[in-house]
Design the sequence.
């Protein structure tokens, strides 16, 4: 298993399995639809032979694959071995620390930024960070992004209860409500876990715009 892992990493790293090296094998095998490994080998060698001629490579398919394997061996035995030997204990310690602290925090911040972007697009408004100085003549809506994992989803109400007092204070000072938006990662994708909040935010924006318009009309009288 360890040997397979090393071979796979090195092959991918140096692109020895790319279309430009071994041909579009996924496409070829679907065209051929072979019934056995022997049939696929025969048909692949035919296609590879034509592929090599077009590239001006004077090798037979068998010799060409052998040359790729030899290149792979050189990369592993010389390049990878040299790189592995250059790794120190301190490198490993710092890598683990960076992985669990710096990279985890960076990923957390990226998730929050991604969710802000999704909200901005859904609402059709620009979402800005809290200013250093608040303009008391304006109304504000508060947004808090809370990245969570699936096991935490039953705890939503606890977060809402815990933050409700702070949210009430914000509403008293700035007029708008505070909305708690939960986000979750699914592979490389980030999504809003409580999408119904978007309509609530939109309704609050409309309410504050109407209130601001009414106050402006009264001020002009």
Sequence:
């Amino acid at each position: 298993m360890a040997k397979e892992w090393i071979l796979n990493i090195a092959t991918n790293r140096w692109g020895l399995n790319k279309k430009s090296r071994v041909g579009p094998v996924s496409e070829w095998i679907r065209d051929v639809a072979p019934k056995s490994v022997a049939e696929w080998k025969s048909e692949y060698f035919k296609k590879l032979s034509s592929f090599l001629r077009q590239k001006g490579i004077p090798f037979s398919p068998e010799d060409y694959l052998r040359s790729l394997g030899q290149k792979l061996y050189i990369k592993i035995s010389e390049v990878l071995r040299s790189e592995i030997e250059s790794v120190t204990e301190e490198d490993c310690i710092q890598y683990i620390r960076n992985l669990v602290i710096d990279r985890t925090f960076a990923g957390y911040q990226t998730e929050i930024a991604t969710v802000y972007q999704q909200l901005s697009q859904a609402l059709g408004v620009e979402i800005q960070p809290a200013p250093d100085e608040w303009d008391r003549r304006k109304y504000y809506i508060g947004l808090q992004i809370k990245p969570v994992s699936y096991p935490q989803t039953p705890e939503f109400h606890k977060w809402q209860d815990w933050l409700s007092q702070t949210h009430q204070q914000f509403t008293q000072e700035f007029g708008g409500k505070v909305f708690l938006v939960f986000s979750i990662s699914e592979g490389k994708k980030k999504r809003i876990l409580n999408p119904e909040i978007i309509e609530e935010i939109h309704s609050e924006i409309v309410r504050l715009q109407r209130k601001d318009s009414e106050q402006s009309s009264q001020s002009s009288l």
User: Anything to note?
Assistant: The chain has two domains: 2-86, 101-220. Strands lie at 140-147, 175-186, 189-192.
